[in-house]
Amino acid sequence: MCGIVGYYGNNEKKEILIDGLRELEYRGYDSAGIALINDNLLNHFKAIGKLDNLAYRMRDFNSSGFGVAIGHTRWATHGKPTELNAHPHLGDYSFVVHNGIIENYKELKETLKSDGVEFLSQTDTETIVHLFENINNQIDNPFEAFTQTINRLEGAYATLIISEAMADTIFFAKYGSPMLIGFNDGEIFFASSDTPIIGKANEVYYLEDGEYGYIVDGEIKLFDKNGAKEFKRERLTPDKILAQKDGYRFFMEKEIYEQSSIMSDTIMGRVNDNGVDFDEIDDSILDGIDEIKICACGTSYHSALTGAYLLERSAKIRTSVEIASEFRYKDPLLSNKTLFITISQSGETADTLEALKMAKKAGLKSLSICNVDNSSIVRESDITILTRAGIEKGVASTKAFATQVMVLWLFSLYLAKKRDKISPEQLSNEIKAILHSPTSLKVDDNLHSKIHRLSKRYLHGHGFFFIGRDIFYPLALEGALKLKEISYLHAEGYPAGEMKHGPIALADSELFTIALMPQTLWYDKIKSNVEELSARDSTILAISPLDFELADDFIKTKEYDHPMLEFFEMMVVTQILALEISIRLGNDVDMPRNLAKSVTVE
User: Does 445-584 match 251-440 at the fold level?
Assistant: First the structure.
């Protein structure tokens, strides 16, 4: 799952595809591959790691003259990052690339195996090419075989197939994952975003969900559930940065909206009918462990605090959280019965890296939660769980925080089952909530519009209190941090119950209270805390699924039966609130003053 490119034409295909894949590197990947048919010969190349490795593999290969080609950068979801698991995937005479997840791949795979089909990889994607060939072998009609294949897939997909059965075409389909087609003087391009084809194509068509088709004599034949379909091309923007933003005003805004689909990537291959499993973890690392210590900085520290609640609640294991910059200088007492977890988006956070080295030197087993494979923290750790958030260009973290929290949630359930601390019924309810979490992260346009309107009331005053209880306390800290980072307004996160122990002295009409009031967790308690602030004339913005009559402003969230689903929706609300306030103040949302994306100094 990551980036797709495709090409139909007479020019050198190797360079076009590798250049296109380079434009998708910002999404993150751990392997890459290209397949092509040139002079009716099927060739393919794969490599682990960076695109330079793939380019080196292909250094002596030339593909001038007419041909078709498809390429892919993969971030491992089903199966580890190996050449066998890298795309494109091979059948007997065809290749496929695919973004998304085929939800019914296990059923399809078992049926194909019973027909004698042998699988080489651990991926869901390989099912597509074998299903296509299996049907085509019976009916000898490649396009009809492709149509039947698409009709049998459940889930999300953007996919391309090339096949010796019809060597002068590319089959394409899109449902739930982005795919577009570019055009330029007889050349046809496919890609999962605009940037790979800018400068190569001058017109574009953005495929809609449920559309599929193939190329005939240089023309696109497009279909949907109603049959053949006409389509209209549009001019392609020449601005690559604008194209990478996919029409959003800022990368941060785009990354907020991406969280729903990105969360699916984080979950994929890790959740099954029996619970949670991590290919990355050797269970021996848990032997003798009776305590967890988590070390992180900034936003990652807030995800760590959330994880501590989840780990102690589900896995019943003692968990403490340390700020890495403090941990390094406090002469900490360390035990080899402690699992030391570090969290970092970049994997290069200097304080966190040095804390990890201290723990390793003391003989502790280590696990890192990180977004960047092969980073310093990943290389230093015994075990790594990648968050699969893709490249995050906005300095203020959004999707990295969301995916860190999800990994910690998954890990708490994984550990709970290993320690026999959770019942099958409880685990089933947790899995159900996890699978529903991408839905809770979807941004509702009406909600965004309301926050935009509200934001004009919050540009002045002497500060903000974000308050919450339990897991919503770390979320309050994170909401305040987001606002500070990009608006430059003073904001603090507090446990709601602590307001009466001092901070409430600041309450007046120019103090804005952002109250996180979930229905599923301590609602009556936090309601009482907010009433105390309202009585002292603080301006209240309540975020809750339940109406609150004392609120000056109210953002109504959906009703869920699990606190983490409320957590993720309220997280999105606080992110958008910070975004809209910052935009109204005229700030550079993506590059706030004085901040860097990767903090590599003390």
Answer: yes
In whole angstroms, give the CA distance from residue 373 to residue 75: 10
Asked whether the beta carbons of 589 and 578 are under 8 A apart, the reply is no
Rounded to an integer, what distance in angstroms lies between the CA atom of residue 427 and that of residue 98?
31
Q: Hey, how many other C-beta atoms are within 10 angstroms of the C-beta on 93?
A: 15
Query: In percent, how much of the chain has pLDDT > 70?
Result: 96
Catalytic residue among 109, 293, 417, 597: 597
The domain 251-440 is classified under which CATH number: 3.40.50.10490, 3.20.20.70, 3.40.50.300, 3.30.530.20?
3.40.50.10490
Measured CA to CA in angstroms, residue 451 lies from 423, 479, 548 at distances of 40, 14, 17
370 is catalytic: no
Residue 295 a catalytic site member: no
Determine the Cα–Cα distance for residues 473 and 147; give it in Å rounded to an integer: 50
Of 15-24, 241-250, 271-280, which gets the smallest average pLDDT?
Answer: 241-250
d(CA 28, CA 389): 8
Class of domain 445-584: alpha beta
Distance between CA atoms of residues 381 and 387, nearest Å: 15
pLDDT tens string 313-324: 999 999 999 999
How high does pLDDT run on average in the chain? 89
Q: Is the pLDDT of residue 602 over 60?
A: no
Quick one: tokens of 70? 């498809």
* DSSP-derived secondary structure for 170-189: EEEEEEBS--EEEEETTEEE
Name the pTM for this structure: 0.72
**CA dihedral sign of residues 318, 503, 589, 553:** positive
The DSSP letter of residue 217 is: T
CATH of domain 2-244: 3.60.20.10
Confidence of residue 392 (pLDDT cuts 50, 70, 90): confident
Check: CB of residue 475 under 8 Å from CB of residue 567.
yes
Three-state DSSP at 339 gives strand
Q: Per DSSP, what are the bridge partners of residue 18?
A: none
Distance CA 69, CA 13 (A): 7
Please state, in angstroms and rounded to a whole number, the distance separating the CA atoms of residues 448 and 446.
Answer: 5
Q: Residue 382 burial by CB count (10 A; 0-12/13-18/19+): exposed, middle or buried?
A: middle
* Cβ atoms 419, 316 nearer than 8 A: yes
User: Is 25 a residue whose pLDDT tops 90?
Assistant: no
What gap in Å lies between CA 83 and CA 45, rounded to an integer? 9
Which one is catalytic: 2, 295, 297, 370?
2
Length of the chain measured in residues:
602
The residues spanned by each domain of the chain are 2-244, 251-440, 445-584
